[in-house]
Structure formats: structure tokens, C-alpha cells
Amino acid sequence: MRPTSLGTNSLSTKLATSATALALLFSACSSGSEESGADDEATAEAGAAQSEGTESEGSAEELIFESPIGEFLGATEANFNSEDQQARFAEMERKVQEEIAACMRAEGFEYTPLDQGQQVFFEGDESPDGLEWGSADWTAKYGYGVTTQRYSQAQVGDELVGHQWDNFDDGAGDDFTDPNAAYVESLTPSEQEAYYGALYGQDTFLEPPWFEEGREPTPEEEQAFFEEQEANYVPSGCEPVAYEEIFNSGDGFGFDEEAAQRLDEEFGDAFAEMEERMMSHPDVMAYDDEVRSCIEGQGLEYFSQVDGGGPWEYFEGLLEDAGLGYESFEDPLEGLDFENMTEEEIDEAYRTASEAPLPDDQLAALAELQELEISTALAERECGGGWEQRERALQSVRIEMEQQFLDDNADRLAEFEGVFGS
């Protein structure tokens, strides 16, 4: 019997839960690269290029973010993407695997810790074809990565664009070998079920009520439901418990998580409110209006982050309208006795489904949407839009507002100085 959750998902959950304050901080402050290579004059020139509707060819690495709050708190990319941090995560994962093995032995099962050298902790910025995410070449091929990443390349054929990643390597790469596979296969179906129950525990998350009712939830209802689920979450099973103990131990991330949580509780709302004021600043609104005019002048849709729009939501809607939404995917295990299938047989069923060519009518509809997505994304770049250019337009506003916030709250913030520093 195939488990319903994988270790990589548990890890992601623990990282997201433990670093909530950090994630909020980065989203509000946009603290980023420490690399040099551009000065204020270059930034001003990039802004001038935007106003002329031209594209700055600078990559995300060449854009230097300045965040007074980020610097004050020690929340810089250098602190969270350094070799030391990579090594810290690897050591934490090693401890997790040891805890899982001890727990599984106590449950009466064998478990060999996974080889750290075969696991992936951080994703790179390149797609499988070597194109850097968000670059001009990537945009020309993938647009925003919505309709072009919905299906595999095998499903869409040579004329359209599909994803090239493999769903069946458990996120660990082509060279990954599960040292426990042979042992699990030697167990009877009932023993395998008990094994996975001991390893992954019981799924305590409830199905949202709107699923059964067949309706769309309100944003408030959806947020309240998942906040309640997270607040009431209690890990069960050797793997979730191990991740909870190691990654939420208080110092696993190299900073004081309790202090980070206090920061979030005391200033989280203020950071969010400051972000809203940044988005409504006259300079940002003027930039947004200029890019909007350029794109809409070409008869295309403009996605303003100021008013909450986004290309992903827009093109997802078009996919659904064309019958290409997620509900169009058929269950590869439908009609199969999957309870008595091996994991390899189940993987093969999913692989076969992921490589089955789409019908001609779906290919035709997808071709139109991909053409629209790519042309819109390219127009956005040409009009001076896109993530990087928008950050350039926002930077001076962010610096001014953040510095004022630091000055106004100096006494209250004093205890949090350097809280995210290593």
C-alpha cells in the first residue's frame, strides 16, 4: 500500500511552520541578495529604462535589494542560503533519520536511514533545460509557467511546451535509491499497511466542508479553516514526530525561534500594513499605471500586484474554462486493485498516465492558451513590468518607509536586533 504522504512533504511543512515569522518578514521587506555589481546610478538608469517601456536585462542576481529592517534583524539572504546553513540542514536531516530509525525499531520494524548525499534540500533557480527562472529566455519558452507546466512534455507533444520533471523520484534525484524498498516489499500487504502507519502516522487533517458541498469557500472561511487545522495539528508517526522534534527544537534554524515568534506576534500586523502602504504609494501606483497602459495598449491582460491580481490565477481560470483544470485529470488507479499493488506497479500506473497524449481538442485549446500566456509575459517584460523591474521601482519607497518604521519603533525593536543573524 502506497503512503499518502512523503517525507519531503513533512519536511516542507516543518520548515514552513517553524519559519513563519521569517517568511512574513521577507515578504514584507523583500530583503535579498548581498551581491554587488550595481550602484544607485545603475538603479536609476533601470528606472528610466522602465519609463521608456524598455526592458532591463539585469537578472535577479544583479538586483541588489536594500532593506533597513532586514539588515537590522539580520534577515539577509546570505544568512539563510550560506554553506553553513546548508550544512545545518543536512545535520538536522541526519538527526531526523536517526530518530525515525529508532522509532521504527521500537514499533517492531526495520528502517535504514536515508543517505544524506542523495537528498535535495534546496532547489536551484534553473529549470531542467538549464534556463534560469524568470529570465528572458525562460519567459520566451514558459511565459509565467502556468499553462506551459500543466502537462508533461510527453502529453503535449513536440509542438507545445510541457514540464520535464519526473514525478516518480520522490524529490531525491535520479540517483536516489530507497534503502528500505526491499524490506517493505518483503512484507505482506497488511504488514506494509502497519509499516506505513507507524512511519507516517494518521492523517488528522479534515476535508474542508465546501468540498462535500460542492461550492467555493470565501477567502475568510478558507483562511479560518486552515488556521484551525494548523493550530490543532498534532504529529503522529515516526517521521512527522521526528521532524517536529528536530526542526522545531528551538535552535535548528540557527536563530532564536522563540524571539522570531514574538517578533511576528508583536509586529506581524504592522509589517503587513506597511506592505499595503508601499503598494499604494504614489510612485508605485504611477509605475503600475504606466506598465498597465503599455500592456493593455497591446490588447493584453495586465496583472497588477497592487490590486491583488496575478497571472497564475488568471490563466488557471482560463484552463478551467477550457476543460483543462485539475479536475480534468483522471485517477490512474481507478478500477485497479491498488491495495494489492506494489509501489513499483503504482508508480508505473502514474507514469503511464503522465505520458498519455492529450486528445486533439485539448491540445488545440492548450495551444491557444500557451500562445496567449507567452505573448502576455513577453509584453510585460518589454513594458518594464515583471518581478525584478517592479522591485526596482519599489526599492526607494521601501527604504524610506522601513527606515521611518525603525526610527518610530526603536525602543520596541531593540530586543530583536540581529535576531535572524547567524
Looking at this protein, list some descriptive labels.
422 residues, mainly alpha
Biggest sheet character: none
So what's the overall shape?
A: globular
Helix/strand/pairing category: mainly alpha
Our Rg estimate from Cα atoms comes to 24 Å
Mean pLDDT: 78
Q: Tell me the total number of β-strands.
A: 0
Low-pLDDT windows of residues: 1-61, 167-173
Percent of residues in beta strands? under 5%
Give the total of domains: 1
Helical region count? 20
Tell me the helix content. Answer: 55-70%
Descriptive notes:
- This protein has 20 helices and no strands.
- The protein is 56% helix and 0% strand.
- With 422 residues, the chain is mainly alpha-helical.
- It has one domain (7-201, 236-416).
- It has helices spanning 7-18, 20-29, 40-51, 68-73, 77-80, 83-106, 136-142, 153-156, 181-185, 189-200, 209-213, 219-231, 238-247, 257-279, 282-296, 311-321, 343-355, 360-382, 387-408, 410-413.
- The model is unreliable at 1-61 and 167-173 (pLDDT under 50).
How do the strands and helices of this protein lay out in sequence?
Blueprint (H helix, E strand, L loop, with lengths): L6 H12 L1 H10 L10 H12 L16 H6 L3 H4 L2 H24 L29 H7 L10 H4 L24 H5 L3 H12 L8 H5 L5 H13 L6 H10 L9 H23 L2 H15 L14 H11 L21 H13 L4 H23 L4 H22 L1 H4 L9
Helix pairs in contact: 1-13, 2-14, 6-13, 7-18, 15-19
Gist of the model:
The protein is mainly α. It has helices spanning 7-18, 20-29, 40-51, 68-73, 77-80, 83-106, 136-142, 153-156, 181-185, 189-200, 209-213, 219-231, 238-247, 257-279, 282-296, 311-321, 343-355, 360-382, 387-408, 410-413.
